[in-house]
Design goal:
Oligomer: single chain
Structural class: mainly alpha
Radius of gyration: 14 Å
Largest sheet: 2 strands, antiparallel
Shape: globular
Number of strands: 2
Length: 71
């Protein structure tokens, strides 16, 4: 969770073994999702394509993933 200005942002990162065809978005409640591998996710977060504020929101997830990676 991130509190930014007058907003509270909840983001979710899910590590799963199920296929992306199993994801069902709720009409009117969900905008979308992106299905990526862990390396793709980390490349995106560290790239210029990921806005600074989003990178800040994802910092905890990134630290956890990078901490789990073998040396």
């Amino acid at each position: 969770m991130c509190r930014c200005r007058q907003s509270i942002y909840h983001g979710y990162l899910c590590v799963t073994g199920c296929g992306k065809s199993e994801v069902a978005l709720q009409p009117g409640e969900t905008i979308g999702y992106r299905w990526v591998s862990e390396p793709e996710f980390l490349r995106f977060v560290h790239s210029g394509a990921c806005a600074g504020v989003r990178r800040e929101r994802l910092a905890g997830y990134v630290a956890t993933l990078e901490g789990l990676r073998p040396g």
